[in-house]
Write a structure and sequence with these properties.
290 residues; alpha/beta; TIM Barrel; eight-stranded parallel β-barrel; 12 helices; 9 strands; binds SN-glycerol-3-phosphate; binds calcium ion
C-alpha cells in the first residue's frame, strides 16, 4: 500500500465522509495471514463516482492498494476510463450533446468527452469530475502508489483496443518490469481480447472474467493467469479446481470474485478460498476478512 501516516489517511477519509479502519502497517502480516486481496471496484465506487480520479483517491484514503477500472476507446482511438458503453448514466452527455443518441462512447472524440461532467450524478460535491483518459488515470494510480486491475470493456465494439491500451501503458511506464511483476493485471470478459493481450505482451499478467466450465479451464490456462467470476457462480470446489491449474506464467491460477459489497458475503467467499474480492466497499470487505 502507499506509504502514508495514519493521521493523513484518516484526514482524507474524513473529507470523503467515509469511515476508515487502518490496514496493517506495510510488511506486517494480517491477522488472518491469507486474507483475500481487496480490489476497489471502479475505484471505491460506493464513496465516489465510479471510474473517476476521485474514486481512485477514495480507495487510497481507505488504504486500498488495488483499484479496478474499465477502459474503452473514443472515436479517435484514445483509451478512456468508463464502464457503460454509453455516456448517459454517469455523465451529462445528453445535455451537452443533444441529438447524439445513443451517446455511445465510441461515437465521441476524446476532446468531446473531456467536456463532460462525470461526477454530478453521484453527488454535488463531485461536480466537474471528468472522464479520465487512461493516461491521466495511470498518473493518479501511480501518484498514489496503487496497483491496477484494468478491464478491457466490450472489446468487440472497440477494434484495436488491446494495442491502444498497451501503447498507453507503455508510454506511461506501466509496462516496465516493476509494474508488470507487481502492479498490473489486464482482464476482460472477452477471451479473444485476453488472448490478444497475452500474444502482444506475454509478460503481462492477465485475467478472464467469467466462470468457464471446469473441463475448459486447461485451455484458459494457456493464455490467462486468473479466472475472475461473479460470486453468484462459485463455491469452494470451483475455486479449488481453478487453483489446481498453473496459468500462463506457470503459477497456480488465481480467483478474484466480484462484486461483493457486504460483510457476510465477503466472509462466505473468503471461506471458498478466493484469492481476491472485487468490491464497491473495500473497507467493509477488508474489515470482514481480516
Ligand atoms: O472486475 C469485475 C467486474 O468489474 C466485472 O463487471 O460490469 O462491473 O465491469 P463490471
Ligand atoms: Ca469492470
Amino acid at each position: 500500500m502507499s506509504v502514508r501516516t495514519a493521521a493523513a489517511s484518516t484526514a482524507v477519509a474524513a473529507m470523503l465522509g467515509v469511515c476508515v479502519s487502518l490496514p496493517p502497517a506495510q510488511g506486517q502480516a494480517s491477522a488472518a495471514g491469507s486474507a483475500p486481496e481487496v480490489f476497489a471496484h471502479r475505484g471505491a465506487s460506493a464513496y465516489a463516482p465510479e471510474n473517476t480520479l476521485a474514486a481512485v483517491d477514495a480507495a487510497d484514503a481507505l488504504g486500498i492498494d488495488w483499484v479496478e477500472n474499465d477502459v474503452q476507446l473514443t472515436k479517435d482511438g484514445v483509451p478512456v476510463v468508463m464502464h457503460d458503453t454509453t455516456l448517459s448514466r454517469t455523465t451529462d452527455a445528453e445535455e451537452v450533446f443533444p441529438g447524439r443518441a445513443p451517446w455511445a462512447v465510441g461515437d465521441f472524440t476524446a476532446a468531446e468527452i473531456a467536456r463532460l461532467d462525470a461526477g454530478s450524478w453521484f453527488g454535488p460535491r463531485f461536480a466537474g469530475a471528468g472522464v479520465p483518459t487512461l493516461a491521466r488515470y495511470l498518473h493518479r494510480v501511480e501518484r498514489n502508489r496503487q496497483k491496477l486491475l484494468l478491464e478491457i470493456k466490450s472489446p468487440e465494439t472497440h477494434p484495436g483496443i488491446e494495442r491502444g491500451t498497451l501503447r498507453v501503458l507503455r508510454e506511461e511506464g506501466w509496462l516496465d518490469p516493476g509494474h508488470v511483476r507487481q502492479r498490473l493485471v489486464i482482464q476482460s470478459f472477452g477471451a479473444e481480447s485476453v488472448k490478444t493481450v497475452h500474444a502482444q505482451r506475454p509478460d503481462v499478467v492477465t485475467g478472464f472474467l467469467g466462470t468457464p466450465a471446469v473441463a475448459d479451464l486447461p485451455s484458459y490456462a494457456t493464455f490467462t493467469d486468473q479466472i475472475n467470476p461473479s460470486y453468484t457462480t462459485i463455491g469452494a470446489d470451483y475455486v479449488a479446481a481453478v487453483q489446481r491449474l498453473k496459468g500462463a506464467h506457470g503459477k497456480p491460477m488465481r480467483v478474484n470474485t466480484w462484486t461483493v459489497n457486504d460483510a457476510g458475503k465477503a466472509t462466505e467467499v473468503a471461506g471458498f478460498g478466493v484469492d481476491g474480492i472485487i468490491t464497491n466497499n473495500p473497507d467493509v470487505v477488508r474489515d470482514a476478512t481480516r
